[in-house]
Design a protein that fits this description.
Layout (H helix, E strand, L loop, with lengths): L2 H5 L3 H24 L6 H26 L1
Helix pairs in contact: 2-3
């Protein structure tokens, strides 16, 4: 996911996206352990997307505390 797509989301939407990405990450790790993973680069993409979402969640939370 691109950061521009995520900036317009609310905190609840970001948390929902984060849960989906974490589930996907778990499934990818499970597939990798079983030798069923075909697209190994997807693991890296999902990890970075999780980091982006977490960063935005932290930024939104900090802005709410400051107000």
């Amino acid at each position: 996911m691109k950061i521009d797509e995520l900036k317009n989301k609310t905190l609840d939407q970001l948390k929902s996206i984060l849960m989906d990405l974490k589930k996907e990450s778990f499934n990818l790790r499970f597939q990798k352990a079983n030798g069923q993973l075909e697209n190994t680069s997807r693991v890296k993409v999902v990890k970075r997307s999780v980091a982006r979402v977490l960063t935005l969640i932290n930024n939104v939370s900090k802005k709410k505390v400051e107000k």
